[in-house]
Amino acid sequence: MIAPIANTTASQTGGTSQTSSTSASSTVAQTQDMFLQLLVAQLQNQDPTNPVDGTTFVTQLAQMQQLEQSVTTGQDVSAMHTDLDTIVADLSASTSQS
Fold it and tell me: How confident is the model over 42-62, as a mean pLDDT?
């Protein structure tokens, strides 16, 4: 039996660039594709006289959804951080000109 995919998250720093966000997105897409391929292979190769419990599949799908939500949340936080940095820089520039 194939073990469930573990939750992994990419560490992000305050200076995250668009390139790393794109890289994280492509990594998630690759991980999702790999997960689905493993799930199909598991279904095709299971013993018909002793099938895998359905809750195993539901658990694995929930883990995949949780991973995707974690990455999306990280990207959202990174975007907010970039926006706040821009606002602070604009405020600093406008106060120094005054």
Answer: 81
